[in-house]
Design goal:
It contains 27 helices and 8 strands. The chain is α/β, with parallel strands linked by helices. The strands form 2 sheets. Strands 3, 4, 5, 6, 7 and 8 form a 6-stranded mixed sheet that branches. A two-stranded antiparallel sheet has the order 1-2. The protein is globular, with a radius of gyration of 29 Å.
Length: 615
């Protein structure tokens, strides 16, 4: 008997087919389950390796053993005249057909339910027959420091933020975010003026005096419309009692704003706090340095110092979610700068940076106190991996109406690939929570532009500039929005010099001349600048796309793709170009693999059409 006939007689082929079909179905179900729990990509990869190894064992056992009425026997011990391999083969056939039926059912479920849940849904604003009740709005201003100890100001800031976080956990309240509330630190302005700028109806203010282990805290809730004090109280406590004090202040404020506090809400408030004086002082010191870092051209030295304080806080309280998340920024800068050829780092330092990001994000996911935040962090963790499967499902969970979580890398992922409407709605809600912070406005403008609403974005940015004054990022946002709306033709200074503090890494008028189809002028500007200054690869892609120089764009994109963190930087490059596909996918094999496994559409839409770009 030939080897083929013997393999067929022993049902080896049937066992192999049955194993592959069952393993595929198991892998699909496990992927969905592991994705729901936010498991890191290596878990699924390990499962796939084990399933693949199992095929070898299944084939071996089907060759070496045979099922008999007495049980499993070694094949050479079975009397051929009493062999029931034929019956076993027919059972295997029926099992294969049954499992194939389950596979068909799973594919239908995936197509009709899972993909529909994950598919981008256009966001439309419709008139509701019954408008939802308006939430009470309140801002917690930084408590004034009435003593001069080294850490007293940080203690007061920590106390303020703890109360703010307690109130943020109550869905009945719209609470101004920290960035906007702390904008008024050490400013002596009338309460009605502050409330008007923040768009709130109530303001909490207070003071803190600390002497050794003793603390005096005064807090009051003020109605902005008439300055009436709805509630006021002075507390004399020890440091050991400060957390009960914070809870009492938050509970009194909530009660005066008609929030009914049950045990569930009280427990939620308690979970929002840090609960350790030294930890929240260290955390506030880190926050102060983190804020300073993002006002400098080179943020990394201050980010490194901020991380030392975050780490000190995390040593005492390991699950401070925001500290875990913010400490990844330093390492993200390193990977971003390396991938784009902004700066060079040793490979060991880059490997450590990637490990730090993954570790901190995994811990932040465990510490997340709501599902949208958890899904957003899971998305970012996946983006820092070589496995982007399941990203669209996580994206859907992250866009929760009324949620005020900032979205960092998710904005770059969502906007160009069909999620612009949902992203714009989310970011506009964040702007309402944090009206004086620049990042939400900038991200909302980008999302609106990708959603075909550049005119709306331009109005928003111009209003921000009018109310807050000149900011480089806002002026640069207005510049690209003039291109997206076509209003550059009416702008007298459109071709003028790039401001010295511009966030553009190359003269922005290169893109101005490109949108006007003045390619020779744009090319001359770029050649002159690149002869004098280093131009990173990200901006080489952007300039190449704007000038219609496909070779330049593809060469720079390929260089990014080959580096650690390259696919993630290319996501950001696509977002910032607003020009469809800035480069060909064939030039970026790693990025192409990530796009395909995530199921993202390519090419993206084209909010800004540069006349010389023909692809």
């Amino acid at each position: 008997m030939s080897l083929f006939d013997e393999l067929r007689r022993r049902n080896v082929f049937r066992v192999a087919i049955a194993y592959v079909v069952v393993a595929w179905l198991v892998a699909q179900v496990l992927e969905l389950i592991l994705d729901s729990f936010g498991s890191p990509p290596w878990v699924m990869k390990t499962v796939l390796v084990l399933l693949a190894a199992g095929l070898v064992f299944a084939v071996f056992f089907s060759w070496a053993f045979e099922m008999t009425p007495e049980g499993l026997r070694r094949e050479h011990e079975v009397d051929r005249s009493r062999s029931i391999t034929g019956q076993t083969g027919r059972k295997l056939d029926r099992m294969i057909l049954a499992v194939l039926g389950l596979v068909v059912a799973w594919l239908a479920f995936d197509e009709l339910y899972l993909d529909r849940r994950a598919a981008p849904v256009p966001v439309a604003v419709e008139a509701s027959p019954e408008a939802p009740p308006q939430r009470q709005s309140v801002a917690v201003l930084p408590f004034r420091t009435m003593s001069s100890g080294e850490n007293d100001a940080y203690f007061a800031d920590g106390l303020t933020e703890e109360i703010l976080n307690y109130l943020t956990g109550l869905p009945e309240l719209l609470v101004t975010a920290r960035t906007s509330a702390f904008f008024f630190k050490d400013q002596d302005l009338p309460i009605p003026e502050i409330a008007a700028r923040l768009g709130v109806d109530h303001v909490v203010e207070g003071s803190v005096r600390r002497s050794g282990d003793q603390v005096r805290v005064t807090a009051q809730l003020v109605r902005a419309s008439d300055g009436f004090h709805l509630w006021s109280q002075t507390y004399d406590r020890t440091l050991q009692d400060v957390f009960a004090l914070q809870e009492d202040i938050a509970a009194n404020i909530a009660s005066k704003l008609d929030v009914v506090l049950d045990e569930h809400k009280l427990a939620s408030m308690r979970r929002a706090g840090i609960g350790d004086v030294d930890a929240f002082i260290a955390y506030q010191r880190g926050m102060d340095l983190f804020s300073q870092a993002h006002q400098t051209a080179n943020p990394m030295p201050l980010l490194d110092e901020a991380n030392r304080w975050f780490d000190r806080a995390l040593e005492r309280v390991p699950d401070i979610g925001n500290a875990l998340y913010l400490r990844t920024d330093l390492y993200g800068h390193k990977l971003f700068d390396h991938a784009g050829n902004f700066a060079a780092f040793p490979q060991a330092e880059l490997d450590d940076a990637l490990a730090e990001i993954r570790s901190s994000l995994a811990r932040a996911i465990r510490a997340a106190n709501n599902e949208p935040l958890r899904a957003a962090l899971q998305t970012e963790l996946a983006l820092f991996s070589d496995d982007w499967r399941g990203l669209t499902r996580r994206l859907e969970k992250a866009f929760e109406p009324g949620d005020c979580n900032w979205l960092n890398w998710m904005s770059a992922l969502g906007a160009p690939y069909g999620w612009a409407g949902a992203l714009a709605t989310h970011q506009l809600a964040v702007v309402q929570c944090d009206p004086l912070a620049g990042t939400p406005v900038q991200q909302a403008a980008q999302a609106l532009t990708w959603d075909g609403r550049a005119e709306e974005a331009l109005v928003m940015v111009e209003r921000w500039l009018e109310q807050q004054g000149y900011e480089a990022w806002a002026d640069d946002s207005r510049y690209f929005l003039l291109q997206a709306t076509g209003r550059w033709v009416d702008e007298p200074g459109f071709f003028g010099p790039t401001p010295a503090d511009s966030t553009y890494q190359v003269p922005r008028t290169i893109f101005g001349h490109a949108i006007a189809n003045q390619i020779a002028a744009a090319r001359a500007l770029f050649d002159d600048f690149s002869a004098r200054e280093h131009v990173d690869d990200m901006n080489r892609v952007l300039v190449g796309a704007a000038l219609g120089d496909r070779q330049l764009a593809n060469e720079a994109a390929a260089a990014i793709d080959a580096r650690l963190g390259g696919p993630l930087l290319l996501i950001s490059t696509v977002e910032n170009c607003f020009c469809g596909a800035p480069f060909d996918l064939e030039a970026t094999p790693r990025f192409r693999a990530r796009i395909e496994e995530a199921g993202l559409a390519w090419p993206p839409p084209t909010p800004i059409r540069f006349p010389a770009k023909h692809w």
